[in-house]
Amino acid sequence: MKYHILGNSELRISEITFGGMSLSEDYREAKPLIHQAIDQGINFFDTADLYQKGQNEEVIGKALHGIRSELIIATKVGNELDPSGDSWNWNPSKSYILKAVEKSLIRLKTDYIDLYQLHGGMIEDPIEETIEAFETLKKEGKIRYYGISSIRPNVIREYVKLSNISSVMMQYSLLDRRPEETCFDLLKSHQIGVLARGVLAQGILAGKSPKKYLTREVNEVQLINDAVNKVANDNKVTASTVAMKYVINHPAVSSIVAGIRNKQQLNDLLRSLQVKNLSLGEINHLRKVIEPNLYEVHR
Hints:
Layout: E1 3-5, E2 12-14, E3 16-19, H1 27-39, E4 44-46, H2 55-64, E5 72-77, E6 79-81, E7 88-90, H3 94-107, E8 113-118, H4 127-140, E9 143-149, H5 153-162, E10 167-171, H6 183-189, E11 193-197, H7 218-235, H8 239-249, E12 253-259, H9 263-273, H10 280-288
Parallel strand pairs: 3-4, 3-12, 4-5, 5-8, 8-9, 9-10, 10-11, 11-12
Antiparallel strand pairs: 1-2, 6-7
Helix pairs in contact: 1-2, 3-4, 7-8, 8-9
């Protein structure tokens, strides 16, 4: 397993992040999967208070209890459960964040969170107030570092300008190269790490039938799939390996956030890391198959 320092932090995180969103709610199923990941070198676990109405944090916290100091935990905040428990409302206010962190700490069975992330964000938000909340929590020792989960360039620019974020979690794949336009250069120049999610584009880059994806028409998706499959065949690896290697190759990317449901997925993922990186020629070829897409809103 390779490790990278996350942005301007001192967090040395595994090249693969265990994304908790797909994790079973059954602790008896989740615990052995989590511990297998740890045994194979994964040390970074990402969850959110939104996932399974907090139960995801509880499962991960329970599974990591006793070895928590050896691992790195990230969670997210900003979606407030309404009184009925049926829906969430966006709430990036300081008062809510300071209240929500206490509940996450209890569920995670820890007295500090390594990386606390705003789970979204809009340019209309009270951004300075949100930043103040995170800075307060750092001073209190309840969080070590903070970041945002956002694909909006205008929001990302504001946090780069106004805050001390260590990371941005964002969608990135061969079918969604929007971050390459401006975000990656901006973040790298400010020593802010990227946590890449959605690298397999809903499984399309792992062998699922081509379909329209974002602004990509089916014929464009097919062109990318054909190119990925050729590189995969030439290297005797899977298509998903090629897709992941393309993402982790980018110098702005610190780790790939992978939703892991079962041991088969985990094993496939780990095998992908063991093969050699793509050559520069292969990377450039994949980039030239179709024009990169660009952000159309929130620019």
